[in-house]
Amino acid sequence: MKNKNFGRKRQAIYILSNRKSTRIIKTLMDFFFFIKVKIKMVCFSVPSLILEGWVSFFVFFLHNRIMNILQEIFTDHYEEIKYTLHPRPAEMENIDKMINCGDPSFGGAMYFCPHCEHLKFVPFRCHSRFCPTCGNKYSMERTTSMSFKPVNVTHRHCVFTIDQNLRHFFLEDRSLLNCLFSSVRSVILRMFHKMNKAQKFTPGFISVLHTFGLDLKWNPHIHCLISEGGLSDDNFWRKVTHFNYTFLRNSFCTALLNELHSKLGNSFKSMKSFIYKHCKNGFYIYAKPNLCDPKTVSKYIGRYLGRPVIATSRIDSYDGDTVTFHYNRHEDNKYVVEKIPALDFISRLIQHIPETQFKMIRYYGIYARHRENDKLLFRAISKEAHPFLLSFNKWRSSIISSFGYDPLKCPHCGKTMMLLL
Predict the structure, then answer these.
(1) Contact at 8 Å (CB) between 117 and 53?
(2) What is the per-residue pLDDT across 246-271, written as a single tens digit (0 to 9) for each?
(3) Residue 352 to residue 350: CA distance in whole angstroms
(4) Are 154 and 293 in contact (CB under 8 A)?
(5) Rounded to an integer, what distance in angstroms lies between the CA atom of residue 191 and that of residue 196?
(6) What is the pLDDT of residues 71-92, one digit of tens each?
(7) Which of 47, 142, 257, 292 is least crowded, fewest Cβ atoms below 10 Å from its Cβ?
(8) Can you tell me the mean pLDDT for 332-355?
């Protein structure tokens, strides 16, 4: 169990002026606290452990406490974030998790080699979607889960955007983000219903909310993967190759404005009139030119629907005060480099942290229901392949596939290490 006094001491060192020294001191404090707590457990469990094992463990410990660039940025400006930006409880919770991700003072798993008695300590992770490490693993797991849903047909990827004058409403009241999902759902189901009102064709579609653009600014929009076809009540599949985008644009605009009007009341009337005059052709709906065929559905979902807010590879440099990052602009594919103050960068990032238990991915149509008839549909990925694909998301398998080495292979003798209970 973590020492309360240790937590106070560690929090106090955030105010040091020399940020590099702060991180070094914090690392050493974490190490000595962990040694104090864990040394008895290890000695009683494995009496035959030799001193050389502790030396290699110390080297590995320091290696694991090297912070990634996001942890450095947030650790250096922790007090400013807390008392200047006044983050929401959900934001503060994820910031604390991300900063302490991989911190051995919060516990971990000890592995040892039964052949040469070499020790290896693996710290626990934070499991926060905001963390670049854990968020990437979360994206992999959600991508795998989503790829099991689509049926074995071609899908269409559509992006439902809104007018920039409406964005601040969703930032000020995040419960309104549900209106985006419900509006997209009603519009797509209505479009398929109009094709044949008697047979009631129901498509399958996955909606994913993105609140960020490439420049990290607030830009809520819905990515939707829609099946090119629908299933009727009498189990007849109708293929659909033409999507009426004029209908989608106008209907989505009307549905969303009506939803917002019902939530916000008459104070929204003037904005509603302004949007109708400003967006005479409805909201812009972008359809990706490349269709998603059944063979590439899992890769497509991972590329467009499961990605995090920013990859650490896009952060070019951090000098303690400013952050430089890059992106390719959508409009002209131009390579853009931005250098902004660290607090502005942090503010842009944390605004995209969702509220606790808010669902960013939602399934509709035949992908949401569980009827016996739907089980007869051929999926893009067969049920027999599910255990094999899920095995790649496990800790050991994901490291082997991503980095090309086995984390449980003993560096001394090459044998498989075991968990020390």
Answers:
(1) yes
(2) 999 999 999 999 999 999 999 999 99
(3) 5
(4) yes
(5) 10
(6) 999 999 999 999 999 999 999 9
(7) 47
(8) 93
